[in-house]
Each structure stands twice: as C-alpha cells, then as structure tokens.
Design brief:
Distance between the termini: 21 Å
Number of strands: 7
Strand order of the largest sheet: 1-4-5
Number of helices: 3
Strand content: 15-25%
Largest sheet: 3 strands, antiparallel
Order of helices and strands: EEEHEEHEEH
Structural class: alpha+beta
Helix content: 10-25%
C-alpha cells in the first residue's frame, strides 16, 4: 500500500475508504495460487488493455491509499483517505490529527508535507 496526493475538484465527493470506481477493472480472472485462469483470450486481452481512471483533476488536495499495482506498473484499488482540502497544509494537519499512517508509522504535519510534496523521505532515519 502507498499514500498518494491527488488533486481533485474542491467539491469532489467519494466515501473515504471505498475503492474508487475508476480503479476497478471489469475484466478479471481467477487465480488458484499458482496460475491465472482467464474466461477467454478476449477477456485477457481486454484486461491488459484496460487503464485505471483517476478522478478529474482540480484545485483540492486529498490523500489516497493505493493498494494494488498490476504487472504493468499501473495502480488501482485506490481510495480516498481524507476529505478534500483547499491547501496542502490543511491536508497534512488533518493526516497528523487523524492518525493516517505512512508505512505503519504516524507522522507529523511537517513529515506529511515532505512526503506529499514529493521530497525524498527515509522513514528509518526520519529525514
């Protein structure tokens, strides 16, 4: 699982913790622990051609958790972890106050600012 910053419309409304519909691939297969079993070659082809769709971009800031990366490096299975905020600072304050975790660690507002603004961050050293 990974935390991501999404820029969404300020009035974007999707339940916190509910997987975003644009991240649900309609073309799936069965996995028995060893191999994939596709209903047909067409379904398999459609699965590999499918691309997740993120929410429309906007001026708001929202923390998301992405919990699935497929073998093409595409992310999906994501959902909002926070409400939408008008500033990154407000979002980071909310993440600290509500105990949103990064790799199972609770972080300060300042550390959230570093992570969500794209600065490199080492959880082990805290820098």
């Amino acid at each position: 699982m990974a935390n991501f910053l999404f820029k969404v419309p300020l009035d974007f409304s999707w339940p916190i913790g509910k997987i975003w519909e644009g991240h649900i691939c309609p073309y799936t297969c069965e996995f028995d622990g060893e191999r994939y079993s596709w209903e047909s070659d067409e379904i398999k082809m459609l699965h590999y051609a499918w691309t997740p769709v993120n929410p429309s971009p906007g001026e708001g800031f929202q923390a998301w958790e992405i919990n699935v990366f497929d073998d093409r490096g595409e992310n999906y299975g994501g959902y909002p972890e926070s409400p939408v905020f008008s500033t990154l600072t407000e979002l980071c304050e909310w993440c600290e106050l509500h105990g949103v975790t990064y790799m199972d660690s609770q972080l300060s507002k300042e550390k959230w600012m570093e992570i969500l603004s794209g600065k490199p961050f080492n959880l082990e050293t805290g820098s």
